[in-house]
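ok so dumb question maybe but i'm new to this and my supervisor (M.) told me to 'just get the structure for glutaryl-CoA dehydrogenase (ETF)' and walked off. so i did the thing. is this what she meant?? sequence i used:
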Amino acid sequence: MALNPYDLYDVHSLLSEEERAVQDTVARFTDERVLPIIGECFDEGRFPAELIPEIAGLGLLGATLPAEYGGSELNYVSYGLICQELERGDSGLRSFASVQSSLCMYPIFAYGTEEQKRRWLPDMAAGKVIGCFGLTEAHGGSDPANMKTHAKRDGDDWILNGSKMWITNGNLADIAIVWAQTDDGIQGFVVEKDFAGFKAQEIKHKMSLRASVTSALFFDGVRVPEANRLPNVKGLKGPLGCLTQARYGITWGPIGAAIACLDEALEYSKERILFGRPVAATQSAQIKMADWARRITGAQLLSLQLGRLKDAGKMQPTQVSLAKWNNCRMAIDIAREARDLLGGAGITTEHCPIRHALNLESVITYEGTETVHQLVVGRELTGINAFGG
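this is what came out, is it supposed to look like this??
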């Protein structure tokens, strides 16, 4: 039997029946609803918000959370497969789901009160309330401990001042999970969009993640009730715990982007005739695509094992860093090389490699740059912290 060119090691056979059903469902949604419109959305710089009810209806928002809070109670391998299939459509769509699930619903679930969970999570799972995650600031995303945004206690409220930058979903969001310095360490707050002094400003002129909403957030004396503070975590442990959740999903997402690029290059190379034969018949094209399949296969196995470790409660942040570093590098290199194989046709958004290549410039940067993850692994190996050195 011929092997699946996008799954040479038959990773699909290592999945449970439920995991396969999840992947097949999201793959069908991507094929039928995302791919027909996403190139145009990218061209227009428009997030396809009309897909949010369908994404929610499939149970993809907060998919790992308990049903009592609107979740689908899926395991983390299933969540990874959701990310992979959404990013096969576009990194912007996976970013939307990652932020909603891992960076907004997760901290409310993990760090919030029972009242906060019941107030926000069911509506977030239903796509009725959209969240964004305010951690990064303009002067240095890789050093969150140095944040300038601060909150001061004022009676039963907190007064929030500062700003955040490069915030996915910012202008879509009904609530923002905002991390701020306080007299008692870094704390998280649920900031509602109609709070006085809170403003979101969409960032324009992007050449990456054009089918995604990216914003700056500004807080000018925003009064936040104590009831909106996430009470069950203090310090960097809070936001970093969220980032580990999101980075896990990001190890899977770029696999989808790489598969999309390989798929398009395979089809194009079979149809494109040069010097009397298809490009696919040339040694150079076959070597390139074989190498892509090798790298995709390694990434698939890496993320699957990472997911099994996470579901067993054994996953370590360094393992996430290794996979995020490897899989983002794998995908951006394949997207660039696929663009090259397509020649002049590769520079248009009628073909996906240039769009994925541009998007992956953001994916390889956010949630920890490649250098940050390399240094995390280096610290694990040597026991020496080289950050800031």
